[in-house]
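FW: tagging you since you asked about this chain on Friday. Here's the raw sequence from the shared folder, copied in full. Didn't touch anything.
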Amino acid sequence: MPRPEEPASMLERFKDTACQREAIRDFLAWLRKEHGLVLARWDEHYGDRLDPANVVLDELIAEFLGIDPDRLEAERRALIEELRNP
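HL: got it, structure written out here
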């Protein structure tokens, strides 16, 4: 899946990828509900087994879509500050 072109800001990227983020979350929820599938991680240190991947899905999705959470938060805070002090 091609990633969107680099927007001027993370706020723009976040807005522009809303449908993609929702579709990915819906697909993963569907896999879990309809097929009992979950994300897992191969653990070589404990007898070569699969363990459920305890991850924050929104963080993984953001990484996949090229959204930097620190930059996004900084831009949100700057926008709030700008609105408070025009």
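FW: Strands lie at 40-43, 49-52.
HL: agreed, and The longest strand covers residues 40-43.
FW: great, closing this out.
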